[in-house]
Amino acid sequence: MNKKIKLLAILMTAVITGSVLSGCGKKESSTTTGDTAQKDVTLKFAVWDYAKAPEYKEMIDAFEAENPHIKVEPLDMPATGYNDKLTIMLASGDATDVIALKDMPSYSNYSQKKQIISLNDYIAKDKVDLKSYQGITDAIKVNGNLYALPYRSDFWALYYNKDLFDKANVPYPTNDMTWSQFRETAKKMTSGSGNSQVYGAYVHTWKSAVINTAVADGKGTLTDGKYDFLKQAYNTFLPMQNADKSIMPLGTAKSASASYSGQFETGKAAMVPMGTWFVGTLLTDKKSGKHNVNWGIATLPHYEDGKAGQTFGNVTPIAINAASKNKDEAWKFVKFLGSEKAATILAKHGVMPAFRNDAVMATYNSIDGLPKEIKEALKTSNVALEFPPNPNGAAIDKILQEEHELIMINKNSVDAGIANMNKRVQDVMNNK
Length: 432
What we know:
The chain is α/β, with parallel strands linked by helices. It folds into 2 domains: 41-154 and 313-365, D-Maltodextrin-Binding Protein, domain 2; 156-312 and 376-429, Periplasmic binding protein-like II (D-Maltodextrin-Binding Protein, domain 2), CATH 3.40.190. Helix content is 44%, strand content 15%. The strands form 2 sheets. Strands 3, 4, 5, 6, 7, 8, 9 and 10 form an 8-stranded mixed beta sheet that branches. The chain has a two-stranded antiparallel sheet with strand order 1-2. A hairpin with a 2-residue loop joins strand 1 and strand 2.
């Protein structure tokens, strides 16, 4: 009997040991590459409007094909409120690995708080050549550190409806148009009233659509603390809104939740100054039957003392969360999103990549459905960063937004509004 009990105990031990080993095997999943076993990792990627942008999935698929042990799980959030949600996530210690940043104030804020990590060591170790970023990476360094790698870099151009111009017998905008000429052209292109109203131009509700036209020459920035140079912008767009009636008033546009794509694609606006991301929107919407606009594109207008090709733009950087537990794998994904391969995918979808060379731009310019003049229209002489990194960026941005709206809805004069900007921003910079 004792021998039977002993044998049974041995058998039970063997079964239990086998079960434990089997369980451990399931937990330590790995992918073997050559002679090296790599642990499988899932990266969480915070981004806005993922479902609306097919290029994201295509880039992720390409990355996963090159890195079979790494899976990328998008955390899709709406564009509206994205910054607020991301700020809460990072403040709470959320460990989402890779995050797309929507603007420079956010980038400044997160880098200052060390919620995203410097990429300097990774860039040096992998010998990443930053020349193809056209100087963008230098522009977004903070105290010599690059806290994100840009994968998109959009700048503003002028879109116009060729059929409306032909009907009005007005010449198309040129690549050397001044803002004064833009204003005169908008007057000529304005017609109708009520439901049949066609504005000569639609200037969107973002403050950048107005005030950033004055930073395009690179002589002043929105973080300088001195804003008298913005007068030329207000002296152009306020008369268009109040006297010419050639653009929709800011108050009307905000209360109606007007969209620049809706105004342009329905033929309600003859011209729209907007970023190069609008190219992809127009192509996608035309393919899906949302519009049939015969559109053209020209270089953004410039002020009289400026020159052709001066514009402004922004970058969409990708950063690594300081709380990520998979920083090395996250870097591989960030590096891929900023690579030529990812840039080619973006270009194919009509999205302007930050990494640009002749091959990438050849892909961009060969997209079916682009107007023939786009290659010349997108040549630039200067692209000023909309909002340079600044430790007080979020506070400055809020002040400018508030004062800008008061000017545009005629609650403040231009002089009073700019005086308020100067004082309030200086107070922030002096920590008052």
